[in-house]
Design brief:
2 domains, two-stranded antiparallel ribbon
């Protein structure tokens, strides 16, 4: 009889240890993987409850996350490069119809304020980016959106072949604005080079 009781007691202790171990693993996984995401979601809920603009589906920057991203093909900002007299609408998207009207943004890149690469492109027409090669290190680029104004300072420029995709990497470690246009500017026919400007 004592032997049966001891076996039952031992089995119960083992089960309790397994349950405790399972709870501990779940808690550790929560702390490591989910806590930050849950805090972000709860922050979104707070913004939703407190901010009327959120309910209108206007873009809102929460930390470095843009809520309600613009729809593809819509104008969401204005871009100014005073040193070369550029003052153009900025569209989310990169198709040819959009580029006839202003500057386009690569749909795989980040938005201003999100902390990653913002990749913009425009035609080298006279009233667009024909004077992009005239910019200098230190020149300012200003992007005005419905959720804030962002100023960037040019720190580098270069000419690359159109196939050099590594010249405009999309990354999320640092907010870098990259603008490019076809080069040479006065080229007739297909241009095989791109003039790129980098700003922080």
């Amino acid at each position: 009889m004592q032997n049966k009781v001891w076996k039952l007691f031992k089995a119960t202790i083992i089960k309790l240890m397994v349950v405790f171990l399972f709870v501990a693993i779940v808690f550790i996984l929560y702390k490591v993987c989910l806590e930050e995401k849950i805090e972000t979601v709860s922050g979104f809920v707070e913004v939703f409850a407190a901010n009327k603009e959120f309910k209108t589906l206007e873009p809102i920057l929460y930390g470095n996350v843009l809520l309600h991203r613009p729809l593809y093909g819509t104008e969401y900002a204005n871009i100014k490069i005073s040193s070369i007299d550029v003052d153009l609408p900025l569209y989310y998207g990169e198709n040819l119809n959009l580029l006839k009207n202003g500057i386009g943004q690569d749909s795989n890149s980040y938005f201003p304020g999100e902390g990653g690469t913002i990749l913009l492109m425009g035609h080298n027409f006279k009233s667009f980016l024909a004077r992009l090669p005239e910019t200098r290190i230190g020149d300012k680029i200003e992007i005005t959106t419905s959720y804030g104004t962002f100023e960037y300072t040019i720190f580098e420029s270069k000419i690359v072949h159109e196939t050099d995709l590594g010249a405009a990497p999309i990354q999320q470690d640092e907010e870098i604005l990259i603008i490019y246009t076809c080069y040479p500017i006065n080229n007739i026919g297909h241009a095989y080079q791109r003039y790129l400007v980098y700003a922080k």
